[in-house]
Amino acid sequence: MHNTPLSGISADALNALLDDAFGTDRHMRTAYLLRKGMTAIDHLSFGILDDNALLASIQCWPVRVGMADLILVGPVAVATHCQNKGLGTELMQLMLNAATPQDAPMVMIGDPEYYGRFGFEAKDTSGWTLPGPWEPRRLLLRNVEMVALPTHGMLGPAD
After folding, report:
1. Positive or negative CA dihedral for 45, 5, 94, 89?
2. Contact between residue 65 and residue 150 where contact means Cβ atoms under 8 Å apart
3. CATH at 76
4. I need a surface site. Which of 40, 51, 80, 123 has the fewest CB within 10 A?
5. pTM higher than 0.90, yes or no?
6. What is the H or E stretch that residue 19 is in?
């Protein structure tokens, strides 16, 4: 297995992986509304391949709350036959290692029990809203540089 920038992966292979991991109705999820019309951030989006088959991927997107730039992490997708083998952890580490001090704080919708080990937490997101349904405890922020962010606002695509 090896990792590669996701920009080198075909859209068909990526869509097949996402359908397998999340179902074909995945476009109805709130996270899709957050990144609608955005292009993935190349230096933070990766795939894991085995014999040219895409087994897992991570994508990051430019979003904003108020006037503050953020990076939306996700989806973190792992093929159903490869789950629970550490590929999600590998992708998260790969993405975090590629992040630079100039990158905006990161936000995601995910399980705090899993993503907390990567520095994501819900403590500063309680005043934010999303353009669809979400569980407040699952709106997570990683703000290593302690960038000043709005305490209230709608999270959405960075125009």
Report:
1. positive
2. yes
3. 3.40.630.30
4. 51
5. yes
6. helix 11-22
